[in-house]
């Protein structure tokens, strides 16, 4: 059996912030129940037991939201306790938590360090850039508090990375953000394109990331990264690392770069399971860990053809020279009304046109060292 990855939503979509572009708020608004409240310890135990009885070799347990730290530390302590109780197959367990960073404090930081959690903190850049869309419930900026908490994670020695949402406002300012990350020793970065609401034509929101803007962003970011690489001190940027891995003949670890959806188990607070964080809506419900085994959930995934439907069959991609590297991008950004054409196709083409030769150089250099 392959390694298993479950993503839990301990606090459902409940959150202590109100970011204008929140994709999960949009997802929640498209299902019967907006929120499933908070995951009970009984449900948590059912999930951990079923997953660990099934797992072989390794198991990643991610906690995401909404904001997972709205569930108290006790919930996560119990998770560790259940992991010890049910790890009969002696699998390697990784705990990963994605947070907006607002609620963290010394106690959280010490807990993460002690339990070897990998923490992702959402930060969109320096003060003005971050605060533009990432607001508190009262509509105030959150940058100052979040940066204080990032410094705390650094001080306590927590392993963490930064997740930045690339949107129409922040993308053109990437040079400024890159300098900011560098100055603050933030060296593990992941940039994800902002999503427009589900089933809506792209580009209609104030925050929307348009393809040309995203293409320019990728080029600018790559040039900055490449310049640093020449001096032997570039940060880790997940997307570029994955492209280089593909060029070296490896499997990208990021599911949106494989050309086919991965097998995931996204668990809402009531124990219900969905195939991807972008599809936590009623029609994609695969079962519930309170009553179903992993095998039954997998069977339902097959019945609704979730993975099969994600195979990229777009004609443009089939005749595209960049397809072995690009693979058509994430299925969530393919447009049904345009024969599943990738919304960011133009961005990828701009990027590969400008940066592929340098990327190949990097891959060649690495393959001669390995
Ligand atoms: S829809 Fe995108 S993010 Fe979700 S599993 Fe598929 S490729 Fe991954
Ligand atoms: S660049 Fe466009 S056409 Fe080519 S593989 Fe990527 S999404 Fe498809």
Structural notes for this entry:
It is a single chain. With 370 residues, this protein is an alpha/beta fold. Helices cover 40% and strands 14% of the residues. The protein contains 13 helices and twelve strands. The protein has helices at residues 23-28, 41-54, 73-86, 106-114, 127-133, 143-156, 174-183, 211-230, 238-247, 294-303, 315-318, 323-326, 345-369; strands at 4-8, 58-63, 92-99, 118-122, 159-166, 188-193, 236-237, 265-267, 272-274, 287-288, 334-335, 341-342. The chain has a ten-stranded mixed sheet. Helix 7 links the parallel strand 5 (159-166) and strand 6 (188-193). Helix 2 runs parallel beside helix 3 and helix 8 packs parallel to helix 13. It is globular and about 50 Å long. The chain binds iron/sulfur cluster (2 copies). One iron/sulfur cluster binds next to loops.
């Amino acid at each position: 059996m392959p390694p298993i990855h479950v993503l839990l939503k301990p606090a459902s979509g409940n959150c202590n912030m109100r970011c204008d572009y929140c994709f999960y708020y949009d997802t929640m608004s498209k299902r019967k129940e907006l929120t499933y409240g908070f995951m009970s310890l009984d449900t948590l135990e059912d999930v951990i037991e079923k997953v660990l009885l099934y797992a072989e070799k390794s198991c990643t347990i991610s906690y995401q939201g909404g904001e997972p730290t709205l569930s108290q530390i006790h919930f996560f302590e119990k998770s560790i306790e259940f992991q010890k109780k049910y790890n009969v197959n002696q699998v390697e367990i990784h705990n990963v938590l994605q947070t907006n960073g607002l609620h963290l404090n010394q106690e959280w930081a010490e807990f993460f360090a002690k339990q070897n959690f990998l923490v992702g903190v959402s930060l969109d850049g320096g003060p003005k850039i971050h605060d533009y869309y990432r607001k508190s419930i009262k509509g105030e900026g959150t940058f100052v508090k979040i940066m204080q908490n990032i410094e705390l994670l650094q001080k306590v020695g927590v392993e963490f990375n930064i997740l930045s949402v690339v949107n129409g406002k922040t993308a053109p300012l990437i040079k400024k953000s890159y300098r900011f990350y560098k100055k603050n020793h933030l060296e593990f970065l992941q940039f994800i394109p902002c999503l427009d609401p589900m089933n809506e034509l792209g580009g209609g929101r104030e925050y929307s990331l348009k393809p040309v803007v995203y293409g320019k962003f990728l080029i600018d970011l790559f040039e900055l990264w490449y310049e640093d690489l020449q001096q032997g001190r570039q940060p880790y940027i997940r997307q570029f690392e994955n492209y280089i891995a593909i060029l070296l003949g490896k499997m990208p670890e990021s599911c949106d770069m494989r050309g086919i959806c991965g097998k995931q188990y996204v668990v809402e607070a009531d124990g219900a399971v969905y195939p991807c964080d972008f599809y936590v809506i009623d029609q994609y419900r695969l079962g519930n860990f309170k009553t179903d085994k992993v095998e039954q959930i997998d069977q339902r995934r097959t019945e609704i053809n979730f993975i099969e439907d994600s195979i990229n069959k777009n004609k443009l991609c089939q005749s595209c020279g960049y397809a072995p590297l690009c693979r058509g991008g994430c299925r969530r950004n393919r447009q049904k009304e345009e024969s599943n054409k990738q919304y960011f196709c133009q961005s990828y083409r701009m990027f590969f046109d400008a940066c592929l030769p340098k990327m190949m150089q990097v891959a060649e250099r690495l393959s001669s060292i390995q």
